[in-house]
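Why do we care about 3D structure at all? Because function follows from shape, and shape follows, mostly, from sequence. That is the central idea of this module. The next example makes it concrete: a single protein chain, its amino acid sequence, and then its structure expressed as tokens.
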Amino acid sequence: MMPDMKPLISIDARMIAHSGIGTYLRNILPYLAESDTMSLELLGDPSLFERLNLSRLNFNIRPVSSPIYSLKEHYEIPRAMSKSSKLLWVPHFNIPWLYKGRLAVTIHDILPMEQEFSSPLKRLYTLLFLKKIESQAEVVFTDSQFTADRLKAYHLLQGEKKLVITPLGINSAWLNFQPGPRPHTNPYLLYVGNIKPHKNLKTLLKAHSLLSNAPDLILVGKKSGFIQGDQETISLATNNPKVHFTGEIPISDETLSQYYRHAEAMIFPSLYEGFGLPPLEAMASGCPCIVSDIAVLKESYHDSACFYSPPLCEKALAQKIQAVLENPDLRQNLRQNGLQKAISSTWEKAAQMISQEFLRVCS
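And the structure:
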């Protein structure tokens, strides 16, 4: 490559408005757009990029309408890419099967491979894609050492494969949001996340029911999501007058920050994560966090930023919550240590590592 020629990188950005992967893209892309060493094109819905204010950044836009996990995506993405593109980056394992060029992939977690959380058909489907990634990708990014280790446990991405760990971060705006009105009148505990079995909401709901003088419990999400849960979870969530759902909150970090800021504590009871980003958002908002004592969250947050609880013991979780509610010094320590963790965790670090790998692959 000539010194004055910048490589063109194509980015599958169809999931830009999603939670999780969408949050990842919305925070990484502005840093990549600042690069003067590469050119970038986004693949996806141009009207969505316009609504999210990404069209103002230094990207070319290539329309792609195919949904994720569709047959159409496998041929539409290669056709939509510019002929001069040197690399395709896919921020999920759903790579286009008919694309034959250089490939970079981000694997946030391998939950669909884990037997306790997935069906045999989902495991087979995911394995086929991971094997394809193993044979074709020039570089694979993961959010944590935990996910890298789980890939290796399945004998994937072994040998010479380039595996780069890029921990997630916090947008600096989270540290600068001003206090606003309380989003809920009564004192409350907060849960932020999807409503899926690995999120372990049943344990949180049981723990909440054990609290003496329990504050309200706010679940950020739609009540209708519980129709896929088991009957006990549905009953705990819908028959307790102190459990409240926000409904869908529009994509607004500032709105969500007010929920964190005014909460007594944020509870993150997951059984499995690839990183676990909501606690970092809570820490940036000055909210004490109680999280599951699982390997990936210990890796992401270490010992002092969170209060840890065994993930399947509702009595232990209730005791941890009660301790935070009754101990002002403990709450203050969690706030201070959490804020320091948030300040030191930036998206810029991940973006720099990703950018460096793009240039390495294209050189």
